[in-house]
Every structure is written in structure tokens, then in C-alpha cells.
Write a structure and sequence with these properties.
The complex is a heterodimer of chains A (113) and B (115).
Chain A (H helix, E strand, L loop, with lengths): L4 E3 L2 E4 L5 E6 L6 E7 L6 E7 L2 E5 L6 E5 L5 E5 L8 E8 L8 E2 L3 E5 L1
Parallel strand pairs in A: 2-11
Antiparallel strand pairs in A: 1-3, 3-8, 4-5, 4-9, 5-6, 7-8, 9-10, 9-11
Chain B lengths: L9 E5 L4 E6 L7 E7 L6 E7 L4 E3 L3 E6 L4 E6 L8 E7 L11 E2 L3 E6 L1
Parallel strand pairs in B: 1-10
Antiparallel strand pairs in B: 2-7, 3-4, 3-8, 5-6, 6-7, 8-9, 8-10
Classes of the chains: A mainly beta (113), B mainly beta (115).
């Protein structure tokens, strides 16, 4: 079965650079969620989109922005990167009305040096 | 919930034993409670969810119990196998509306199954 696709899988950036993470949800899933997971930590909700509109916002820094496109894929844009942004970034998707069943992608490991 | 960083609770069992993983949640307004399994280097994998108006739900080899009185959630894994070794997270949905899909994860538990 098709799963959530994330790219790139690994990304190394320097401080103050920008990064763009991409997420392709499971076909026919219209809701996308972004989470950040630090080492040994639980995933922290960043932001979500439903039908290309932002549906909720969590602990996402102002330096980050995201959007969902007409084909339902989503991009997380991160600017002025800081060392503390180093983490695993997961995208998840769900079908309409089934937000309790979120399917996660493999994640993008971002390292900021 | 908040994790304690690298010092996650651990559970070690022998292959074939039953495992019980516990979680305390904080938000009484959550509509669903969910269990995820996360293997090293992979994204969380949905296991099972339970609606807040239920107290028990069974899946394949797994049972989730919800005790709203003490805000406690547990995951029981029957006949645990080495492939079940992973970090297990409980999560709760948001209070509803547009926040419904905002999952709040609890502290993970490291399950190690010995052959």
C-alpha cells in the first residue's frame, strides 16, 4: 500500500540557511500534519492543513512556514536555521474525518551545523 | 505529555509473554486516544485507537484499555514477538474543531522483547 513520502530523507544545513521539506500524502488523504521530534523526545505538533487551508497551528516558530498545494502535497519552509532546529521532521496524513488515524512518513532528518 | 528526554521508561519481556504498556493523559476533552509504535529510524506507526466513550477495544494481538476516571490508557500486546521491540507512544487528539487532528504525544516507552 502506498505510504506517505517525504523528501529529502536527510538534510544538512548551516546556521542561518534555509531548508524546504516536502511531503506527499497517501492518495485520497486530504489532511496533512507536520511534527518535529528531537532525540529521545516525543513528536511535537507543528502545523496542519485540510483541503489546502491551514487547520491548526502548534509550536511552530515564526521562521517556519508551510503550505498545502492543489495536489495535496505539502512543503515546510524553514528559514534562519538554528542549531536547535536539528531534529526529525515527520509528515503525517489522514482521510477526511479520521484525524485519529494519522499515517506518518519516514521523516526528514535535519542537521544544522 | 512531556518526555524525559533520553531516559524513557523501559519494559523488557520474553518472547511469548504478554506486554502491558501504560500511559497517563492530561486532556479530558480529547475525543480519541491512540497508540503508535516507532521503530528506530522510522516514523510512528498507527496501532489502534479508542474513542473516549469506550473503555476497551481489541485489535489483532492488541487491546487498548481506557480509564477516564484516572486518565489512564494502556496497551496490551499478546504473545509478544521480537518484532514488537520498539518505542510505544500514546497520543490524544485535540479538543475538537480544527484542533481535532492536533495529536499530543505522551512519553514513549521502550519495549524490548528477548528471544
Amino acid at each position: 500500500a502506498a505510504g506517505v513520502i517525504q523528501s529529502p530523507r536527510h538534510l544538512i544545513k548551516e546556521k542561518r540557511e534555509t531548508a524546504t521539506l516536502k511531503c506527499y500524502p497517501i492518495p485520497r488523504h486530504d489532511t496533512v500534519y507536520w511534527y518535529q521530534q528531537g532525540p529521545g523526545q516525543d513528536p511535537q505538533f507543528l502545523i496542519s492543513f485540510y483541503e489546502k487551508m491551514q487547520s491548526d497551528k502548534g509550536s511552530i516558530p515564526d521562521r517556519f512556514s508551510a503550505q498545502q498545494f492543489s495536489d495535496y502535497h505539502s512543503e515546510l519552509n524553514m528559514s534562519s536555521l538554528e542549531l536547535g532546529d536539528s531534529a526529525l521532521y515527520f509528515c503525517a496524513s489522514s482521510a477526511t474525518g479520521v484525524a485519529s488515524e494519522q499515517y506518518f512518513g519516514p521523516g526528514t532528518r535535519l542537521t544544522v551545523t | 505529555g512531556e518526555s524525559v528526554g533520553l531516559h524513557l521508561p523501559t519494559l523488557s519481556v520474553q518472547e511469548g509473554d504478554n506486554s502491558i504498556i501504560n500511559c497517563a493523559y492530561s486532556n479530558s476533552a480529547s475525543d480519541y486516544f491512540i497508540w503508535y509504535k516507532q521503530e528506530s529510524g522510522k516514523g510512528p506507526q498507527f496501532i489502534i485507537d479508542i474513542r473516549s466513550n469506550m473503555d476497551k477495544r481489541q485489535g489483532q494481538r492488541v487491546t487498548v484499555l481506557l480509564n477516564k476516571t484516572v486518565k489512564h490508557l494502556s496497551l496490551q500486546i499478546a504473545a509478544t514477538q521480537p518484532g514488537d521491540s520498539a518505542v510505544y507512544f500514546c497520543a490524544e487528539t485535540g479538543p475538537g474543531g480544527t484542533s481535532y487532528g492536533k495529536l499530543t504525544f505522551g512519553q514513549g516507552t521502550i519495549l524490548t522483547v528477548h528471544p
